[in-house]
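Allow me, if you will, to draw on your knowledge of protein folds for a short while. I have a record of one protein: its chain in single-letter code and its fold written as discrete structure tokens. Could you please explain, in whatever detail you think fit, how the structure tokens follow from the sequence? The record follows directly beneath this note:
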Amino acid sequence: MNRGKKKSHAKEYAWGYAMIAPLVLGLGVFYFYPVFKVFFDSFHDVGAFNKRKWVGLANYQKMFQDPVMWQSLGNTVKYVLIIVPAVLIISLVLASLLNTGIKGRSFFRVVYFIPAVTMGAAIAMIWRWMYNGDYGILNYILNLLGLESVQFLSNTKTALVSISMVSVWSTTGYNMIILLAGIQGISKSYYEAASIDGANGINQFRHITLPLVTPTLFFVMITTLIGTFQTFDTIYMMINKNSIAMESTQSMVVYFYRNAFEYSKKGYASALAVFLFVIIMVITVFQMKMQNKWVNYE
């Protein structure tokens, strides 16, 4: 019997490992190997034909002395400071409103979620047309109101904010659905008890909804922050690489891409990627440590 049980367990283990083998293989090829390769390349000078030359910490020394890198990092921080709070606030407000008994609730849920299932390239192309300084619909409306046209994407003062608005518009709907699910998970008995005590909608939101939805809000904040640090497609497709607004809008990921594929400096680009990875990791760990002070899991 013992031998039979051992054979049975061995077959179960074999089948279990066979089932997870494709996933493990996929993670190894498409995740762990690229991560290792980026770290490895960051210590090398990698040319256009993948010729490697060991340079040690030279790429990192060059990176910290690169004014364009610091400007790109500053632009990325600006995106985070604009997009993350705006997405959290708007998503939470919309989720709270759509959790009420307003008419057309299902219609509005679908409308707000449409950007989340639309290709990023299509979103960038549409907004680029809307922002066009000569025939864009936004400037057409401004002209009808008697106002002058605005060069949204070529003016260094407005380009970053304009791109941030697109990112907020395209990510709000997805986060709204997540927060809506979190709000709907709150027991209605809390609201019924608050109504009996005379609490209005604002007080119920402040003292019931907001504290009890903090776990979901924390998840949305983490994912939005990481996604914003990795902003690429919207910037790259909406700003011409020869535009004067490129340096004032390009993020760290855009600067990484340009070094890797336009300037053929893959070793330096890998150092940029490692630096960005460390920044995101440190901020995420800090947020995980601080969550106990404001996230309510009860």
Remarks:
- The CA atoms of residues 127 and 166 lie 7 Å apart.
- Residues 2-41 form the longest helix (40 residues).
